Amino acid sequence: MHPTEGLPDLRTRLGGEVELSAIVDNFYLRVTGDALVAPVFARVDLPALRLHQQQFLNTVMDAPTEPTAAHLRTAHKDLQITPRQFAALVQHLQAALREAGVPDAVMTELIQTVERYADDVIGR
User: Fold this and answer.
1) pLDDT in tens, 11-37
2) Does the pLDDT of residue 85 top 90, yes or no?
3) CA-CA distances (angstroms) from residue 49 to 2, 67, 76, 88, 102?
4) Cβ neighbours of 65 (radius 10 Å)
5) Looking at the domain assignment, is residue 5 inside a domain?
């Protein structure tokens, strides 16, 4: 039996759509204030990016369509995100999740899911 079998979906365990929106807002406050990763967002429309980030997280949390490697590579190709920057972004997401009171098991599951897309975001 899979460890999450029989549990509500990841989005529900995270706290739902309203909580996800608050987590994404907190995440962007963190990343735009971080000198390592802020340059990645310097030429990006942040309101649109917040929406895309929320859609991405919804997609990886049991939504019907899964993002493809090609889509993620295309979306991130001009950003030149380094492995170090990706790791920092994951840490900021983790901090936003922790601050929202997301249970450790749910946070771990979401972070592991996001990390599966590292090569696509970095462009490896």
Assistant:
1) 888 888 889 999 999 998 999 899 999
2) yes
3) 33, 16, 11, 17, 23
4) 8
5) no
How many domains is the chain built from? 1
Write b or e for each residue in 1-27: b if 16 or more Cβ atoms lie within 10 A of its Cβ, otherwise e: eeeeeeeeebbebbbeeeebeebbebb
User: How open is the CA angle 112-49-97, to the nearest 5 degrees?
Assistant: 40
The answer to whether residue 1 sits within a structural domain is: no
* CATH code where residue 44 lies: 1.10.490.10
